[in-house]
Amino acid sequence: MSLVEETRRDDVMTIALNRPDRLNSFTVELHAEFAAALARVKDARAVIITGNGRAFCAGQDLSERRVPAGAPMPDLGESLSLRYNPMLRAIAGLTMPTIAAVNGAAVGAGVGIALACDIAIAAESASFRLPGSKLGLIPDAGSTWTVSRTIGLARSRAMAMLGEAFTAAEAERVGLIWRSVPDATLLDQAHALALQVGALQVGEN
Length: 205
Known about the structure:
alpha/beta; 6-stranded mixed beta sheet; 4-stranded mixed beta sheet; 20% strand; catalytic activity; Enoyl-CoA_hydra/iso; Enoyl-CoA_hyd/isom_CS; 2-(1,2-epoxy-1,2-dihydrophenyl)acetyl-CoA isomerase
């Protein structure tokens, strides 16, 4: 089974993370497939990034980081430099508008992916959380920059240090996302939005 699903309609490309049984958490393999999908986006009018199942993206799959007792710990800096940072740069570097359609929990890197897109909308049942402080880590995947730039230092510090979740309604209220929408309409609204901003890009009216 492909870890990333790609569909195209009306010149809008939708890229869906497809590890629903693991809440679309990242492994080396998912990173590789997602990077390949982003590299294939060339002439789409706009791109939607979402997740299959009940989560948008739960960040890193921590089971991949487990090592036997006495074995060396994985190099987290290498993971960031070789996979997470290039992923965020690839999203931000796309030449067409990007829409994050956050369908469920966005945790850690999931928040980073959503905020790397030009516009983020979320299902009403979605949530946003930076749990790094619970693990002795600082937020990664660009979140230390994008979250503070989006909602300001006071809120971003509390979000990072407390590790508490924002509901979609709270995320909309503080400006973390553009809008929360009914769950059943999320992808339809994301598609309509993609067509709207895509038309602006190509000069249609």
